[in-house]
Amino acid sequence: MKILNAVFITLLTFNIASNVSAHFVAKRSLAQSNSPLAKSYPNAKIKANQLNDAVLAEDYEKAADLTHQKLIQLIGGRAKYLRILKEGMNEIQSEGFRLISTVSEDPTQIIEVGSDVYAVLPTTMKIKVAEGLLVGQSSLIGFSNDRGEHWAFVDAGRGFSQEQLRVLFPAVADRLKIPEQKRPVLQRAP
Asked: pTM for this one?
């Protein structure tokens, strides 16, 4: 139980810094997707996974480029965001956790407001721990101000409130439906 509590604290730290991590898992081609939402805005999933890849590769500059700039401003600017992200990753590693992957899937919700597009993308995170593998579900909120060509993201996981939604996404805060983040499941090592 102690390890689960430590992971929750770590995940909450990531929420402050957009709770991004990464994956080197083979991705299903968007062209093969059956989701009409994904077909409308294929760059949402592609860019979300680029963000994930950047964090795992410790390319925090690229991760910052793919993080919603309003969040970065609220945190206190790019330098502070980069420091928090790096410290969060170092904390995970110092506690014996190893991020294996984070994979964002096709959007489950799209909201269009003029040329702005908002998307909710389910995300699965896997963390290696001494007892096995922790698998958790979360969501990213994607934002594009150019009809879906470029995207930036905010993690909508544990601890993300309606008030925070209103600050970051005032035009759609009441319409965004964020799935509840569930406790990570421990898959014990054989």
From this structure: 0.80
**Are 186 and 4 a contacting pair, CB within 8 Å?**
yes
The pLDDT tens digits of the residues spanning 132-145 come to 999 999 999 999 99
Q: What residue type is 82 in one-letter code?
A: L
What is the spatial distance between Cα 154 and Cα 113, in angstroms, rounded to a whole number? 18
Residue 9 to residues 50, 92, 122, 150, Cα–Cα distance (Å): 25, 10, 21, 31
Reading the block at residue 124, the tokens are 């699965």
DSSP helix/strand/coil, 157 = coil
One DSSP character per residue, 40-56 reads H-HHHHHHHHHHHHHHH
Q: Which residue is it, tokens 């509840």?
A: 180
Beta-bridged to residue 120, according to DSSP, are 109, 141
Structural contact between residues 128 and 142, judged by C-beta atoms closer than 8 angstroms:
no
For tokens 């410790």, name the residue.
58
Helix axes 2-16, 78-94, angle to 10 degrees: 170
Domains of the chain: 2-188 (3.10.450.100)
Instruction: Please state, in angstroms and rounded to a whole number, the distance separating the CA atoms of residues 169 and 179.
Output: 17
